[in-house]
Amino acid sequence: MKKLLLIITLCTTLPAFARQNTALPHGTVYGVKPTSTAPVAAERLEAYMDKKTRISTTIKGRVIGVTKPKGGWFDIDAGKGKVIAAHFKNIGTNLPVDLKGKTVIVEGVAAKEFIADDLQHFAGDTVKGKKQHTVKTDPKHRLTFEVTGLMVE
Predict the structure, then answer these.
(1) 44, 48, 53, 54: CA torsion to nearest 10
(2) Taking CA atoms, which of 42, 51, 106, 153 is between 20 and 30 Å from 61?
(3) What class is the 28-119+135-152 domain?
(4) What residue ranges do the domains of the chain occupy?
């Protein structure tokens, strides 16, 4: 009886472990399927935006890593050491960590972040002798992308 119970337990749990290591097939979609036929390369997104601060577009790029699987937070390589911080508009979307290194087509809204480079201080710290707090920024995250749909290429 114990052996039978052990065999049944193994038969039901082994497939669950086997599914975790499967490769993501071509065409896997998260969110809404991207509709654009000519996506912009992630390396050219900043130049494509020109002087606009926000733009609806579709981009194609390589995923550097999934930062938060729940909610769909991930980074896309923008070339020359730059990174596009992307997240899903629908926070109910969950991404697999296996997405790292895959080329994806992503549709959504790209936005430029405005970073204070002139060492601005917080209000109230203008009296001499008090320590002024500076705004620290990460120069790699100048572009953000709010994703509505993602497709693995």
Answers:
(1) -90
(2) 51
(3) mainly beta
(4) 28-119+135-152
